Amino acid sequence: MLLIYVSKLTNRLGYTLNLVFKTILNIPFEITLDEEYFCSYSGPKICYSRNKIGDGLYIKSTSLLYQTSVENQEIQVTEMEGLPIFFQTYGKDITLPFDIFAATFYLVSRYEEYLPHRKDHHQRFDYKDSLTYQNNFLHVPIVNKWADFFCKKIKDHYPDINVPIRRFHFVSTIDIDAAYAVVNKGLLRNMGRFVKDLVDRDYNSVYKRAMVMLKKEKDPFDTFDYILKTANDYHAELLFFVLFANYNTYDKNISPNSLKFQQLIKHLGDYAKVGIHPSYASFADPTLLTQERKMLASVMHKPIKRSRFHFLRFQLPVSYQNLTDNNIEADYSMGYSNEYGFRAGICTPFHFYDMESDAETNLTIHPFAVMDSALKKYLNLSPDEALDVLKTVIDEIKAVEGTLYTIWHNNSLCELFGWEGWSRVYEQMLDYAHQVKNK
Fold it and tell me: Which of 102, 295, 322, 390 could form a disulfide with 286 if both were Cys (CB 3.0 to 4.6 A apart)?
């Protein structure tokens, strides 16, 4: 067992030690404030304090994890053996040249999102303002890499320490923003699309819409059997998030009252996990979030425990507090809609730390690394270029034996409306992830 000495135990410090050693590295550990006990302990041990005691490994602490407030931090990013680091420390006896626990907490808690910052037109934190993007390591699961680097230092110093083997894991998640392009959309909505397609001279869409309305072709967004079969072929865990809300400017799914839509959701629930996709409007209306969750639960006949915000529109900590109030146990929104990478610097599920109450919560955050629309719409990548990015992301996560979460949409797999060639990307991504998992 690993013994860790701390001069003072705070909520932030206890949370971070659990995250690094229990959640990421799976190393059993004990915390002590007893100097005499620590110095006499003969097994693997780490001292985390301003001054070193004993003969174990030493991480010199900075002040962040002993604070309870949120305030601007002076951060300068430098490098350690090819890895970016910050919260640097100095001294001849230090094991690492930075406070790994403070740096980890800063990223995973999303500390910078509690500070004054610019918001985009959807009232979201702008990835361009993030420390990781501005210092060119957004695409790296740096928290996991730091943990692995530290683990090697521990093993070098204590060769007999038992470090359990970790395994790469992969989950394919699908957002259902619009279950159907034509079916159950109603005459007015379909006529509006007809007019728009005619004005845009998109005669192919006019034809497709007419064929579906005449029941001569399948709705193009109805790719669900394909998704279920493809995920099964590559042994991928599958999770759907359903937008189950009334029609709005940014919420354009089928009416929750549609029996066909309800039957679809029940069908998906027979083969995969289903979560709520809280509507765009619920961002500022917790009552609406509760209503949507209850409606979906009544259709599924089971509690709804998973969530991902529509448009990834959330604000810390209030949005996560609203989820907790609704008995949601897991959220999958931690990432960016217009860039791939690791928003919290990590590729391992972790508990949300509420900076407002200065306490760890039971809400588990499952950070995703990449979304289909980020690759196509915002980065303007071709299918082949997107596949290269996906393989790079998979390799990064495999290198630290983390968990890969990706976001696709049922309509992005329809091979129409600009998404030609992207179902092949989805299949090859699943295939590559499956191969990597079995290496």
Answer: 322
